[in-house]
Amino acid sequence: MDKLQGFEFWRTTLKEARFVVAPMVDQSELAWRLLSRRHGAQLCYTPMLHAQVFVRDANYRRENLYNEVCEEDRPLIVQFCANDPEVFLQASLLAQDYCDAIDLNLGCPQMIAKRGHYGVFLQDEWELLEKMVRLANEKLSVPITCKIRVFKEVEKTVRYAQMLEKAGCQLLTVHGRTKDQKGAMTGIANWEHIKAVRKAVNIPVFANGNIQHLSDVERCIQETGVHGVMSAEGNLHNPALFEGRSPPVWEMAEEYLEVVKQYPPCTLSYVRAHLFKLWHHTLQIHQDLREDLAKVKTLEGLADVSKQLRLRCQIAKGKDVEEKKGGLPFPHWICQPYIRPAPKDLVANGNSKDSEVKKTVCQKRALEDSDGTADTLSKNKQKKRSRNPNKNFCPEQKPKYIKCEQCGNPKGNKCVFNLCRGCCKKKAFKEVADCPSQYTHTHKLTSVSACCTNECCVVTKRPNTPEFV
Ligand SMILES: Cc1cc2nc3c(=O)[nH]c(=O)nc-3n(C[C@H](O)[C@H](O)[C@H](O)COP(=O)(O)O)c2cc1C
């Protein structure tokens, strides 16, 4: 049977989904998707996966997709970042049986995407994108979709969307922010651009940006004419957003922790990050518990801190105590959006906050650009240091790894070809393998599973290598 396309795909496979949970690295994992679906989400995306790693590493495939497969988690779109048509295709072929469509990330504006040459940094490479989408559309059994950011110019954004449609993209998500609208400069998404794209293409369009309440969903659909809306931050702060409810935080936190237990394993740092987002406002009052939440090392520990937060809120609620602090919303214990200060409020000319924001942005950039050589540590590094105070972030004192002669990744421990695990494996398959470490292992082996974890030893599984038979 021919695969469904465009509107037919949206109507039949996606069941006319209008409420969509965004792809979110470390945050749109299975447990969170299931929680969001229970509360109104009709379609979810996986976090962005790296196409190249997905092709190369079976563990990565298992941990990030295959082990997460479950019936309740459909419809599901798997998102990849990629910059090579063949690699993107190979990754998508390996993922297509576990999802309803494959999405290409053309929106990530982070420094890591700049270095890896993917996400929004492909925004100007139309020829390459055309090839990637065309090949995927031709060869995959599921539709290919794209998630883009807008250009400053409406007209260029429209031509960009039309190019992707022509290449074979079957559904387009338009994030109404430009490449530079990130971090402190995030600001408001532009729905005018989204509306223009919607009018100009003949495939379903989802709008992304500024969706914090159910009323935003309705307004966005009305103003832009899109077929669905996607929420990221709004969903993280209130997973019941699409139900039009703002439940007490503990209700969502406890239900989420239950789902995590029901669908193991879930990485602890994801759970911690979700609780930080859910309890965002309350944690500004109960700073002691903020520290506890950062420190505990088990799921039970996290659940316990969450319970203590609930008890404190319930006591305050019972006594009708108004715990107001700074600009915190009240009551702080209901799920509600975190409103970022608008960049114009922060960087208006002559505003005293101006230099502060620019300083933060510049510091961050310096840190990103210099790979951690700046004086200030990023939030992530600070977190790492709080867990391991002896950790050294000085690049000169980092252990130096020997690099793979072919690709520059760290060399495998035992490989005598001076290759990384992936390249060694390829070599082993292409040529008759004669890595002495493999011989040694093979002779000692009683079973394949006793083999070293170095993928170069995969060669021992090949039935017709002399050392195996
Ligand atoms: C924690 C987090 C992780 C994200 N990871 C991804 C990702 O993996 N792929 C992607 O295309 N966008 C990612 N984004 C961007 C969102 O999908 C979305 O485009 C952006 O946050 C704007 O939507 P919002 O205004 O509803 O937050 C991420 C956003 C957040 C907050």
TrEMBL record:
To which species is this protein native?
Answer: Dicentrarchus labrax
Molecular function (GO) terms for this protein are: tRNA dihydrouridine synthase activity
Question: Does the record bear tRNA processing in its keywords?
Answer: yes
What positions belong to coiled-coil segments?
Answer: none
Protein task? Catalyzes the synthesis of dihydrouridine, a modified base found in the D-loop of most tRNAs. Specifically modifies U16 and U17 in cytoplasmic tRNAs. Affects the level of some mature tRNA and thereby the total cellular translation.
Q: Region Disordered: what ranges?
A: 370-394
SUPFAM superfamilies linked to this entry = FMN-linked oxidoreductases
Which family is this sequence assigned to?
Answer: Belongs to the Dus family. Dus1 subfamily.
What's the protein called, per UniProt? Answer: tRNA-dihydrouridine(16/17) synthase [NAD(P)(+)]-like
Tell me the enzyme class. Answer: oxidoreductase
Q: Which UniProt keywords apply?
A: Cytoplasm, Flavoprotein, NAD, NADP, Nucleus, Oxidoreductase, tRNA processing
Q: Which reaction does it catalyse?
A: 5,6-dihydrouridine(17) in tRNA + NADP(+) = uridine(17) in tRNA + NADPH + H(+); 5,6-dihydrouridine(16) in tRNA + NAD(+) = uridine(16) in tRNA + NADH + H(+); 5,6-dihydrouridine(17) in tRNA + NAD(+) = uridine(17) in tRNA + NADH + H(+); 5,6-dihydrouridine(16) in tRNA + NADP(+) = uridine(16) in tRNA + NADPH + H(+)
Q: Give the lineage.
A: Eukaryota, Metazoa, Chordata, Craniata, Vertebrata
Instruction: Write out the annotated subcellular location.
Output: Cytoplasm; Nucleus
